[in-house]
Amino acid sequence: MTGIAWDIWRAGRANPDAIARRQQDRLATLVECARSSSPYYRRLYRDVPETVNDLAANLGELPPVGKRELMENFDDWVTDPHITLAGLKKDLLGDASRIGGLYRGQYLVMTTSGSTGEPAVLVHDRTSLQVANLLGPIRERRTLMTAAEARAFVHRGLRAAALVADGDHFAGVVLTEAARRRSPRIAGRVRVFSVLRPLPDLLADLNDFQPTVLYGYPSAFLQLGIEQKSGRLNIRPVLAVASGEGLAADAGAEIEAALGCRVSVRYLASEALALTSRCRQGLLHVNADWNIVEPVDDAFRPVPAGELSHTVLVTNLANRVQPLIRYNLGDRVQVDASPCACGSPFPTLRVEGRSGDVLSFAAAGAVVDGQALDRKSEADGAVLEGTGVDEAVLDGKAVDGKVADGKVVTVLPLVLGTVIEETAGVRRFQAIRTGPRSLTVRLELGPDAVPAAVQAAVRERLGAFFAVQGADGVDVRFAEEPPRPDRSGKFRQVWSA
Question: Which of 41, 269, 320, 438 might form a disulfide with 434, Cβ 3.0–4.6 angstroms?
Fold first, then answer.
């Protein structure tokens, strides 16, 4: 680990040519490992020359890969023959008590659905974990916290609350529980607070724990800000670290004003745990010594610096057990053409990523337009035209989403998305709130999925979720059209009409 730490420190002071040489050497080693130890990559690269001069500059020689084909070939994808998908499901993934524990004593395993909604199982080896654990503290040692924040932590102590979705081996939960397992001292100061829980329960637990650090979804922070201003939440965090969703500048300012602390944004991925670092200018820099980031168009052709990509291909140069080479991450990014004023040799990256609205639904027994709504309220659906949902109709009358008696349940976009996209057979989805008691879902299914069965499973899972949240009776409808971008070309998963 000392050697990796020293190399990370040196790379931060290197010039771009020295970083490119690191990329080239590590990529060549990774490709050789993939060819020799992964049957999947051996087949994929059968027409690729054994030797490619300056491979990092000629990445187009290597075909891109995506979640679907990798997961269909999981046992041939991994380089350790002792790892199989069936074995992981049997020994680890089905056991919540093993979240954050090492598989076979050396691998950290997590699941993710990602921006495209296609499920994946990710396995990280020791080198990948060491790089991830060292890059942030070394690259961000001067920007991680201000002097005032450091003094506050010394005075009040560190108590970190991870506001993420639990119930599976998702990255945020796995990394938090892995840290807790390493040290009893950490275990008492770091906790997962599931955003899947009913909001009153979540607020009560946070009020009791009194976190000094929050990390998780920006939409969760926005909701906490509303609750803080209402008086139902009473915490004094020193710092909030946001990731997993996009965060507009005005939303960040709203969170800071409500919670009384600075908000710092991170761009990470389960597939590449230390993809970027944040500089003193507030910009994200690609850790290009250990990752390769390629902004591309819809045909996987390079997009010039300064232009927004259709998607991004990522290569994780640290992980040998499950090679990710030119992997389609699904986010839209833009690499800046000019060097950063901070003086870093690493390129700066702007990310569009996921986006979604915080949704509000009428609580069970709430009154809408003078009518008490029970769990069998009749909503006759949504008018779907073009790429958006125009309005919802309740008993023949359009509703604007206002609930007369104020009984409202709020739902975070990533939480709702988790419920839908973790349903077997769902490849991609969109969920559109069309009224205080209605939700329209667009689905793209896997090749062997039975539409009626998947829809029934999604409806059942959503019904159970809404019931737990106190919004029992939300009418779930399924649109005939598949998920698609809006008029601006942006793909939104969850929003309110």
Answer: 438
